[in-house]
Design a protein that fits this description.
The protein is an alpha/beta fold. It has 10 helices and 13 strands.
Length: 291
Amino acid sequence: MSLADRQFTLDSKRGKINIGKGHELALIAGPCVVESEELVMGVAKNLVDIADRLGIALIFKSSYEKDNRGTEKNWRGPGLEDGLRILKKVRDTYGIPVLSDIHRQEDVKISAEYLDVIQIPAYLCQQTSLILECAKTGRALNVKKGQFLAPENMSSALSKIRSVGNKNVMLTERGSCFGYNRLVSDMRSIPIMQNLGAPVVYDSTHIIRIYGISSADPKGGEPEFVPYLTRAAVAAGTDCLFLETHPNPKVALCDGASMLKLDLLEGLMKQSLAISKALGRDALNDAPLPR
């Protein structure tokens, strides 16, 4: 059988964004956490310029809060009010959709007023109450697959979202547990989750994190492998790429050890688009899944 139909659509000031079967490779990118208005606006400007040059659909990502930190002393972000204000400024200034994680139900209502895409973190992908509350807003959702789940088990999150009538959802592959501190990328996850009927996003910048080591420590990640994983995911037919990026990851306040340096992103996207073109998106979309 062929891969299931899957569609994700957003309206923006710059036009409609379509992700999924029959559409070109798209990009979700930005710094891990909102560090400052100046940084976020600068990265957004660079990403818009890259997207325009390459002709790709762009969703800007940055979290107003990262609640899953290794220690209470680590930077968690500016918080709900300031973070959403800055993300709204990105959307208003550049006309691009914005995305952020949500960690708790009480944030959902106000976040839905500012965000175009609500993201469910990997470790909360089975949190029924949070998923349902987010789905009921009618906003588009991106659910990150938990490191502890098989890709086919993401049917549970999809079922919960669809139960309240929300069908505008993507699923993100970001690795599976391998031992205690490493993640491994199983490229079979891409077609398996696509066949659940949702576009699949591939996040290579989290897969290369080494957990148990602070993301401020260069040993806490292996960003040199981001291009290899990204290119492989495009060859496997992913619908969208998720790349956290920063002008100078060494001084980033969160996930500095795993983010892609901003000046490397355009080159990687050119390679990814070349692979997609060479293989043919239509051919990948119609690839049979033998039984």
